[in-house]
Amino acid sequence: MTDRPRPRLVYERWTDPVAGEILGQADVDIIKLDLAAADEFGWAQLSSAHGYQVATRTDIADHPDGDQWLAGAALVQRCENLLAVCSAGAGYDVIDVEACTQAGIAVCNNSGPGAEAVAEHALGFMLDLAKNITVADRALRGGPVADRMALRGSQLFGKTLGVVGLGAIGGRLVQLCAPFRMQVLAYDPYIDDATARSRGATPVPLEELVERSDFVQVTCPLTDETRGLFGHEQFAAMKTSAFFITTARGPVHDESALCAALVDGAIAGAGLDVFHQEPLSPDNPLLSLDNVVATPHTAGITVEAAHDIAVATATQWLTIFDGGVPPRLLNPDVWPRYCERFSDILGFRPDATTALQKEGKPS
């Protein structure tokens, strides 16, 4: 027998039920946050939580004061027992990393498992835009197509791809584009030149990337540094034949500047999976443009990705509560303070040399 408190994990939803199945076999209390319930009920659940699988912006979009359930400074202050927070996918803009670090809370994401799905989606956008697939489909559904040459597209073969953010998703996209023999440029200030080249890309400044690329693919996280990274200046510098594609987060680009560039013909088209407002309003002017292909933040939503993210999510929480280092820890500077709080709250000290070897699919 042990007198150690039983870890308590609050979550809003899993991407796949397998996460609950894995965690259900562990010595952890799993509590579902009911966003439809009274606020007092949710705060009562979170006040005793040691871990929080943070709700997404889509989860809270239809709820009054929904932002209170994101891991911001106010939530951190109210949840004194909180040791770790994790986002559902690679993006972590639902978490105030600085506030968590100051409070001694570990911040994690789930980058990696969904990379294949998002990279394939980005490639799909590239093919759709270049070949005018959606434009042709719309024309065909409107009646007989009298002039097929008006739907003439272009090829990916031999073109230049500019990737903004060369992490798991960007790196995989480069691999997927290899058969097209594209020249690949990359802008990522957090990846050194040697690593960029090892991933098949030539590192260049952002200014050069937007000027030279036929396809600009944005796959970086939303941070203070990347917010508003693409605006009027960047769109004006792109080729008039170039396409802008993003699977990142909406605020990385200026929507009004993008819309103006598309209307004025400054760029040829755009493939958009993310927007400033989500769910997207049907009267958003971008949806009225024929040179826009849009999806509702579904790039990472596939059967396989949902399962793999859920497994990674569950095994990361098992590692956390077992006292190991989270495999996708975003604020490593928090470790000393985190260890002290962990020991005070759960009764034993984490060990940086200990981690569960449970990553990957269960047998």
From TrEMBL:
The residue ranges of the D-isomer specific 2-hydroxyacid dehydrogenase NAD-binding domain are: 123-299
Pfam name, any one: 2-Hacid_dh
List the Gene Ontology MF annotations in alphabetical order: NAD binding; oxidoreductase activity, acting on the CH-OH group of donors, NAD or NADP as acceptor
Which GO terms of type biological process are on file? Answer: amino acid biosynthetic process
Query: Is this entry keyworded Cell inner membrane?
Result: no
Ranges for domain D-isomer specific 2-hydroxyacid dehydrogenase catalytic come to 73-331
Keywords from UniProt, A to Z, are:
Amino-acid biosynthesis, NAD, Oxidoreductase
| Sequence similarity | Belongs to the D-isomer specific 2-hydroxyacid dehydrogenase family.
The protein's name is 3-phosphoglycerate dehydrogenase
Q: Can you name the source organism?
A: Mycolicibacterium agri
